[in-house]
Amino acid sequence: MPLDEIGALHAFAVTGMGEVRPGDDVGGLVAEAVGAAAGGRAGLADGDVVVVTQKIVSKAEGRLVAVDHDDPSAKVALVETEAVRVLRRRGDLRITETAHGFVCANAGVDLSNVGDGWAALLPVDPDRSARRIRAELRRRLSVTVGVIVSDTFGRPWRNGVTDVAIGVAGVAGIVDLRGTADATGRELVATEVCVADEIAGAAELVMGKDRSVPAAVVRGVPGDWLRDGSIGAEVVRRPATDLFR
Amino acid sequence: MPLDEIGALHAFAVTGMGEVRPGDDVGGLVAEAVGAAAGGRAGLADGDVVVVTQKIVSKAEGRLVAVDHDDPSAKVALVETEAVRVLRRRGDLRITETAHGFVCANAGVDLSNVGDGWAALLPVDPDRSARRIRAELRRRLSVTVGVIVSDTFGRPWRNGVTDVAIGVAGVAGIVDLRGTADATGRELVATEVCVADEIAGAAELVMGKDRSVPAAVVRGVPGDWLRDGSIGAEVVRRPATDLFR
After folding, report:
1. In this complex, is the C-beta atom of B49 within 8 Å of any C-beta atom belonging to chain A?
2. How far, in Å, CA of B190 to CA of B185, rounded?
3. Which of B151, B148, B124 is nearest to B196 (CA)?
């Protein structure tokens, strides 16, 4: 078998969720849009990983603040309020550290797709947001899935943004392959793979160009990655071990 | 249709390639391992993206140098020779800029899975490596595919490594969504997505934990991303626009 179905991964966009508003239940909306797999019907199954964008999580959690979109200084002021540290400034751009420990542009403050006059802030605790969504999917559909809350971050040294995981539940942030012998018998020294970021990126690829699709399902993630995970505890790098802060 | 097959992506590991040696033809090896899709048989098809790891490309291109694995100073000396700039030093670790403009650990010098006493260097021109592999796949299988050469990079601020694209052919490095109106009609200001890195990361997820699988196929990439691309021209950030160099 040349294309190994054992090592196969599938990603699907979740469509038809409609606009998300403060107070909405993201897990319930995903459950209604996707349904459970049954009798050949496509839908969520045990072991799937559901990726939802930060934007709908922030909206549902009411993380919205009023800001004049036509006043750049108003956005900058909001960003500097949200940030716990500003690493770099260039024009209206701030590279910031957030209360979560994320380093990203403009403290994650998001003006697109949130309505004129409003900005979306990051969820207060995205790991907790993921846990709530996971619990609701279990309650509604009787499925045990992983959940990733994703956001779009830039990075130094490379142009372009990619989606990364800012919160997880029921799926590892990092899979630690240290000590696994390589094919020559030599011990691998440091191969901690941030699979949560790679899954978030794979989901982004199917979410559509105009970012109007707010969720995706990734199927085929190895079972031993589906454990209790945490972006805050596993992926956020402590400043003391960081060479670029 | 709750799971949108239109926005579906599939990734498969390419198994059975065996050990790659200097002088080997990576495109030919992938072609032999995968074959062309025909009569219901799984295999490569037009529009697929083939992701191959840097390690087999470097080996095939003879980018191997002798180094004593048990002498850390020998590796450090090799790294400092390969680097055009050292950004940070900590113990034996060097965060470096390579001749390609990549910023990565240890100038991409790789001691795992290359045989005792040897180190693999990065390909001289990974975009060119990708173009050669793509041409060979076309010649052997009469398919028009995208090719990505991937490598495993760390990053500041976040623990764990992810696979990124160091060379591409027939697929975009970055898809520029600037100017695309979002769902509220507001113009998206900066949404240049590095889809090549996200595809490389998706491929990594199926390549297996011990990294012995050196290639994967990603199917379902939107047709308009399958254009001439270049990591060197699109993704490598010029120092003048970089806030962290």
Report:
1. no
2. 15
3. B148
- Chain A residue whose CA is closest to B192: A160
**What residues of chain A, 139 to 198, have a C-beta less than 8 Å from chain B?**
152, 155-164, 173-175, 177, 180-184, 186, 188-195, 197-198
Crossing angle of helices B195-206 and A195-206, in 10° steps, is 120
The beta-carbon neighbor of A156 closest among B1, B9, B244 is B244
Residues in chain B closer than 8 A to A4 (CB atoms): 12-15, 206, 213
User: Which residues make Cβ contacts (< 8 Å) with residue B119, sequence separation at least 6?
Assistant: B64, B65, B66, B67, B75, B78, B109, B110, B111
Instruction: Quickly tell me which residue has 């500041």 as its tokens.
Output: B156
CA distance B80 to B76: 6
Per the structure block, which two tokens stand in for B164? 């990124």
As for the ipTM of the complex, it is: 0.94
Give residue B118's Cα distance to chain centre: 21
Are B110 and B119 in contact, with CB atoms under 8 Å apart? yes
Domains belonging to chain B, first-starting first, are: 10-58+124-236 (3.30.1330.100), 64-122 (3.90.1660.10)
Cα(B30)–Cα(A134) distance, integer angstroms: 39
pTM for the complete prediction?
0.94
> Model confidence over A122-140: pLDDT tens digits?
999 999 999 999 999 999 9
- Hey, are the CB atoms on A212 and B180 less than 8 Å from each other? no
Q: Do A201 and B198 touch (CB under 8 A)?
A: yes
Quick check: A223 contacting B, CB < 8 Å?
A: no
Question: Are A243 and B193 inside 8 Å of each other by CB?
Answer: no
- Return the SS3 of A172: coil
| Strand-pair category, A93-97 with B85-90 | unpaired
Write phi, then psi, for B175 (nearest 5 degrees): -105, 125
- Chain B: closest CA distance from residue A217 (Å): 8
Distance CA A42, CA B19 (A): 39
Q: Residue B91's pLDDT is what?
A: 93
pLDDT score of A199 more than 80: yes
Give the DSSP H or E segment for A87: strand A85-90
- Kindly list the residues from chain B whose CB atom is less than 8 angstroms away from the CB atom of residue A234: 159-160
Confirm if B216 and B150 have CB atoms less than 8 A apart. no
Contacts of A243 in chain B (CB under 8 A): 87-88, 90, 95, 156
Structure tokens at A52: 């939802």
Give the whole-number percent of chain B exceeding pLDDT 70: 89
Q: Which two tokens stand for residue B74?
A: 């020998």
